[in-house]
Amino acid sequence: MKKEYLILDKVEGSLVELSGLHHVAYGEIVNLSVKGKSENVVGRIIGIDGDKATVQVFGESMGISTTNTKVVFEGKPFKIPVSSEILGRIFNGIGIARDKGGPIYSDKFYNVNGRPMNPVAREYPRNYVETGIRSIDSLMTLIRGQKLPIFSGSGLPHNELAAQIVRQAHIVGEDSEFAVIFCGMGLKREIASFFIDNFMEAGVMDKVVMYLNYADDPIMERIIAPKCALTAAEYLAFEEHRHVLVIMTDMTSYGESLREVSSQRSEVPSRKGYPGYLYSDLAAIYERAGMVKGVEGSVTLIPILTMPSDDITHPIPDLTGYITEGQIVMSRDLHQQGIYPPVDVLPSLSRLMKDGIGEEYTRDDHPDVSAQLFASYSRVIEVRALAQIIGQEELSEDDKKLLQFGERFEKEFVGQGFHENSSMEQTLDKAWELLKILPKEMLVRIDPKIQAKYL
To answer: Locate the ATPase F1/V1/A1 complex alpha/beta subunit nucleotide-binding domain: which residues (predicted)?
Structure first.
């Protein structure tokens, strides 16, 4: 039942406080109409204390005062309309169309907070998603239904990498339709234009749904944007039975928004001023990825984080690492050498990779080749450190071959063109080409039978 209130207690930034309320619920949607303004502003209850409530305003709060605003409690949670018509569309952070396609008309409205997924009903992720990027496909394979974040830094080409993944990602050996949900939080307009133009040029826009919150948009809209995006993803996956890839950038902007709202509410801060519920808030987003037993369709999540000062121990990447199933770390050193994508192989991993590669999924040599590449490149880093001390001339022949392998591995294997799409077969063949540089005695991670077959 709708309830209407005419007098507010306090307005502080994008937060509004009221008292004397009767039977309102946490998360309930609110409409605020300001005298003299034609359009209403949407809000949501984010705190209840007795008969008092704190409302978070999603839109522009300029002009709202304690006496000129009418507040209507809708008696329902925040929902967005969903249908297959959302494909190819661009929306703002609260699901309102930004393009010229008009609103979505549907009889299905989904709660943006999602429907809790029973852990027992979850299906263990197995099949891999081919991205066409050699370093990811071979060494940190993305598994369908996985959540695999990209840890980046300011100025690194994470946007280009995300656009390339969207353009190239596909599920090998299946005819089921593949869709992409792109969620941008606090994006500069030129970056948003880059993504739109890139998807248009690649001809994939008809399978992409974009939720864009610009840097000059309200921060409250930034907080709800990932929930709207994941709601659309869940609908496409579990109702339309599509495999959905969700790209989110930048989760650091999301965390900053949470911190700002927490500060406005005078909450006791935790690490670096972030609220104590940052972990549970991030988990509520990341854990919406996955698959359900008996239901065709999946949600695979790739959140992108720009680490402040490249600090991987910063609260947002630190907590993200606990919740997700691995990470792809980008290297500033490789970027400065002109290598794209500058994936830092050694700290990167995919915890679900072992169950989605091998003879039944990719190729029988994949697990051994992956282990050998990691081991050999790890040894390369040690030899480079040694060469800086004693000089490259003093190294043994085997160590010199390792250095040769390391240089070619970075330039020819990790490095590839922005429009270069490498199949899994081509990726593994390229790995064998580089491993041939090393003496057979150094290939200790590869089964002799696999060596005999491929070497």
So the answer is: 132-350
What CA–CA distance (Å, rounded) separates 323 from 388? 38
Average pLDDT over residues 215-219: 86
Q: What is the pLDDT of residue 39?
A: 75
Cβ pair 229, 223 in contact under 8 A: no
Burial class, 223, CB count within 10 angstroms (exposed 0-12 / middle 13-18 / buried 19+): buried
Contact 330/275 with Cβ under 8 angstroms? no
Q: What is the pTM of this model?
A: 0.91
CB 352 within 8 A of CB 125: yes
Gap between the Cα atoms of 180 and 169, Å rounded: 9
By three-state DSSP, how is residue 16 classified? strand
β-sheet bridge partners, residue 45: 55
**Percent of the chain scoring above 90 in pLDDT:** 52
Distance CA 138, CA 429 (A): 11
What are the b/e assignments for 254-276, b being 16+ CB within 10 Å?
Answer: bbbbbbbbbeeeeeeeeeeebbe
How many CB atoms lie under 10 A from the CB of residue 399? 18
Question: Which sign does the torsion angle of CA 432, 163, 307, 322 carry?
Answer: negative
Question: Which tens digit of pLDDT belongs to each residue from 270-323?
Answer: 888 899 999 999 999 999 999 999 888 899 999 999 998 899 999 999 999 999
Please state, in angstroms and rounded to a whole number, the distance separating the CA atoms of residues 86 and 113.
19
Domains of the chain: 4-77 (2.40.30.20), 80-355 (3.40.50.12240), 365-454 (no CATH)
Looking at the DSSP bridge assignments, the partners of residue 213 are 185
Helix (H) or strand (E) holding 374: helix 366-390
Amino acid type, 31? N
In this predicted structure, what is the pLDDT of residue 407?
94
Count of beta carbons in the 10 Å neighbourhood of residue 159: 20
How far is residue 102 from each of residues 85, 96, 205, 425, measured CA to CA in Å? 11, 9, 17, 44
Measure the CA angle with vertex 167, ends 326 and 226; round to 5°: 55
Q: Where are the beta strands (DSSP E) in 120-214?
A: 129-130, 150-152, 170-171, 178-187, 208-214
pLDDT for position 177: 61
Take residue 267 and report the two structure tokens written for it.
Answer: 């909450």
Contact between residue 396 and residue 404 where contact means Cβ atoms under 8 Å apart: no
